[in-house]
Amino acid sequence: MYYGAIKKTDIANGAGVRVSLFVSGCTHHCKGCFQPETWDFQYGSPYTKMAEQEILDALGHDYIKGLTLLGGEPFEPENQRVLVKLLYQVRGQFPHKDIWCYTGYTYEADLLKDSRARCEVTDEMLSMIDVLVDGEYREAQKNISLHFRGSENQRLIDLPKTRQQKKIILLEI
Predict the structure, then answer these.
(1) Which of 21, 69, 75, 144 has a CA positioned 20 to 30 A from the CA of residue 130?
(2) Which of 155, 154, 149 is nearest to 167 (CA)?
(3) Which of 133-144 are b and which e, b meaning 16 or more Cβ less than 10 Å from the residue's Cβ?
(4) Contact 55, 23 (CB under 8 A)
């Protein structure tokens, strides 16, 4: 897996001050994407143990609320297989920090059912994510007044409550 950037104090991609990992590789190719360079699976730098340690070290600060995964597309299967290992590390070392993930895939249609996105680690990934921002960016539905998303079709799903109640529960902001 490659990544485009690690932001150690991000306030735009989730609640509070966060560490954000921008992964490379995306097959959605949304019109108006704000980072089309990340569509390339080899954009940026190779994800290494050193990069992982940089993320974990940055998460160690008290003022950091959590980790955000975005891209590119974290739920491309080749990215999931790497990211699930990072999520286990984060959950083990920082159980009180939350994890947000942005995906162009939709929760019910693409991540829970057989699809191009589903692979052997998808359920593990989902089990460790607190907030899933799902749905492709749609330029025709762009709305800059929305919290933590770019277009009106995208949802902020509270995954722990969704799993518990067995229905989609949106995050209240």
Answers:
(1) 144
(2) 155
(3) bbbbbeeeeeee
(4) no
Per-residue pLDDT of 58-107, as tens digits, reads 999 999 999 999 999 999 999 999 999 999 999 999 999 999 999 999 99
Write out the two tokens for 40: 């390339």
Alpha helices in the chain (DSSP H): 49-59, 77-93, 122-128, 159-165
- Tens digit of pLDDT for each residue in 146-169? 999 999 999 999 999 999 999 999
Contacts 24+ apart (CB under 8 A), 90-93: 90/55, 90/56, 90/59, 90/128, 91/128, 93/56, 93/59, 93/60
Element containing residue 132 per DSSP (H, E): strand 131-134
Residue written as token pair 């492709």:
136
